[in-house]
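Human: Not sure, check this?
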Amino acid sequence: MIRTKLIHDANKPNPQYRNLVHGVRTIVHQEGLSGVYRGLIAVMARQGANSAVRFTVYGQLKQLLEPLYPVNPQIGKSSIPVRFERYIFF
């Protein structure tokens, strides 16, 4: 992924890329178009696992807290998602 390459390159004593456009051009020239997408599958797998854990934890916490927060008759549902969503979904 381009972002990862640019971040790692910026931390080097002598960076190879001057800016985003120069970095993309250099990567495409040296590695071809596939160099832009290298690592995409790993990032997608990590994000998929992250989302699975997040939704599982959210569902479990919601079930655990539902008895403590009754259904609000004005909106027809519990206020749990509004109160705790910000702690689970950063």
Summary: Residues 50-88 form one domain. Helices lie at 2-10, 20-31, 34-37, 40-65, 80-88. The mean pLDDT is 82. The CA atoms of residues 75 and 82 lie 12 Å apart.
